[in-house]
Amino acid sequence: MLGGDALSAVGSGMTLPFLLVYLSQVRGIDVGVAGLAVATVALAGFAGNPVGGWLSDVIGSRRALVCGLLVSAVGAFTVTLVRDPWHAFAASAVVGVGLALVTPAQDALLATVVEPRQRPTVFAVRNATLNAGYGVGGVAAAFIADLGSAQSFVVLYVVDGCTFLLFVPVLIVLLPDAGRATRRTDAATAPTSPARRGYRAVLRDTTFLQVWVLMAFLVTIGFAQTLSGFPAYATGDGGVGAHVVGIAFAANTFAVVLLQLPVLRVMTGHRRTTGMALACTFWAVAWVVTAIAGTSGGGSLAAVGLTAALVVFAVGETLLAPSQASLVNDLAPDDLRGRYNGLYTLAWTTGLMVGPALAGFALGAGHGRGLFLGLAAACLVAASLTWGLGRRLPAHLDVVASVRDEDPVDRRP
């Protein structure tokens, strides 16, 4: 399953970063309209994430994932047919719905094909393989994409669609019995059962809601800024070229792939919330370095500083990976696992919508340095919120378990 996931990540790495460029510079759509079309990908997630979670609980996460992969493939193929603005909106919506269906089903399925104590490890490894896939896809796209050739982009999106389709037989043939919908017992059909209450039961889980709010906040001040605020600030106030941003992202990807397993070994037996708080601290350092590098006058000093900032950010990513999705799945009962993952994915969608808007407002007002210093402060606030979450979590949920032990080894002070 991790192999199929990495394969589809290669396709996504080849195409998603270039969608705006493809629509505006290759298909000749006004850049403002093209930007709105690209935003449709995220907007589709607001509806698609809860539907994907519900579908996983109703028909099983494997079947829901297959549906999402098929929709994603159709979306990728449809992008190649774009000629007019309405085509761009329609194709982007299909892409967004497909991704919104895939993510919660994928997380729910991954959580069920391993033992609970293995979840931190498998989600951490998935983070490394995804980054490797995105990196390979980005490098491949750099060699294939040609702004003077629409056909080169058609090749990229066709290959992207095929990577989704190739994942389908892996699920059908190799995992035929995985991710089945949980059969409801008589107790489960009682009026107060989670199975009957659906999303209402998830929304009454106050611990999960704390995790949700924290994750939406982290995505807004962290991941979303790497995709929006950072490149805009680096090429604007920072005075560096786009190639420096590319090098910085490549260094980030390499660092995640290289460090994820060693960091996981260090984290095993320790608090999940400690790892999350440390991740926030590393991100705060990364944004301070970014703010300083952006005012160094450009040149090699700025390039080194900006690249170092994303490497430091990568360390935070590796600390976060064993904790976030695995904690959500440890909180989730089996018959609501899809819905928990659907809402958890919605936290990401929310952050990825709010974060770029925040960055655009600050950078447009000429407050680039202030933006990143403010983000650093926000990361420290998030670290304190994480410590607060740790005081509320039961001990067995706040430990990164060892895959070798039946019971988690608690090394907490």
UniProtKB/TrEMBL annotation:
Keywords of this entry: Cell membrane, Membrane, Transmembrane, Transmembrane helix, Transport
- Describe its membrane topology: Multi-pass membrane protein
Q: Where is the Major facilitator superfamily (MFS) profile domain?
A: 1-394
Q: Does the keyword Transmembrane apply?
A: yes
Residue ranges of the TM segments = 7-25, 31-52, 64-82, 88-111, 123-144, 150-175, 207-228, 240-264, 276-295, 301-321, 342-365, 371-389
| Gene Ontology CC, one term | plasma membrane
Q: Does the keyword Transmembrane helix apply?
A: yes
User: What Pfam families does the database record attribute to this sequence?
Assistant: MFS_1
The record's listing under CDD domains reads:
MFS_MdtH_MDR_like (cd17329)
- What is the recorded name of this protein? MFS transporter
User: Taxonomy-wise, where does this protein's organism fall, top ranks first?
Assistant: Bacteria, Bacillati, Actinomycetota, Actinomycetes, Propionibacteriales
